[in-house]
Amino acid sequence: MENRNTFIAPSLLASNFLELGKEVDMLNHSEADWLHLDVMDGRFVPNISFGLPVISHIRKATTKFCDVHLMIEEPEKYAEDFKKAGADMLTVHYETCNHLHRNIQQIKDLGMKAGVALNPHTPVHLLENIINDVDLVLIMSVNPGFGGQHFIQKSLEKIRQTREMINHYKAHALIEVDGGITVENAGSILDAGANVLVAGSTVFSSKDPAATIRALKHA
Ligand SMILES: O=C(CO)[C@@H](O)[C@H](O)COP(=O)(O)O
Ligand SMILES: [Co+2]
């Protein structure tokens, strides 16, 4: 993975679950690079989304990179199951991991890329001792649990701090940003140093999702 490329990762959380096959097919034919799959347990976040069986089916229907965002307690209990379901990248929340280094190692040993996500209130400097071990840092630009929220402006500063840290430690991690991304704010998020843009409602609420993905890609 080149770390200055831009990847677009539509979040299926905002898609029409009754038409999931069609939605995945639309994404297969679009300029989307990754599929972002939000898994919520109703404990770490106050919402429940979808889990392993749904991801297994999506895996069979797509050749795109499956980027699984785990918003669950005790993610280490399920890492192997998500590998079997077809995850290419597994991102765990810093806030759910007492043994983050062990969790990241477990994900990599299972053959997946490993990411760490930070809630809006969690400072970037806490990643200093793990930055060389992760493939991705996910900066949450909304409080996790729901799609359709507004981008928290402070996230721009956190993206810049993460980019500085990656440069300082000569790390290879990508910076993914998730929550409230629109065609209008995508440019400033990329300028701050992001590589991967997650977009749920912006893509799936638009009249032409494929055109919106293209617009984000060329923001
Ligand atoms: O992880 C999450 C929410 O917790 C996200 O991936 C959302 O699904 C993004 O949705 P939008 O803010 O783009 O509507
Ligand atoms: Co997400």
Automatic annotation (TrEMBL):
It catalyses: D-ribulose 5-phosphate = D-xylulose 5-phosphate. Substrate binds at residues 11, 69, 145-148, 178-180, 200-201. Its cofactor is a divalent metal cation; Fe(2+); Co(2+); Zn(2+). Keywords: Carbohydrate metabolism, Isomerase, Metal-binding. The gene is rpe. The keyword Signal does not apply. CDD domains: RPE (cd00429). Pfam families: Ribul_P_3_epim. GO terms for molecular function: D-ribulose-phosphate 3-epimerase activity. The keyword Metal-binding applies. Binds 1 divalent metal cation per subunit. It comes from the Bacteria. The active site is at residues 38, 178. It comes from Chitinophaga rhizophila. This is Ribulose-phosphate 3-epimerase. A divalent metal cation binds at residues 36, 38, 69, 178. Belongs to the ribulose-phosphate 3-epimerase family. Its EC number is 5.1.3.1. Pathway: Carbohydrate degradation. Catalyzes the reversible epimerization of D-ribulose 5-phosphate to D-xylulose 5-phosphate. HAMAP family: RPE (MF_02227).
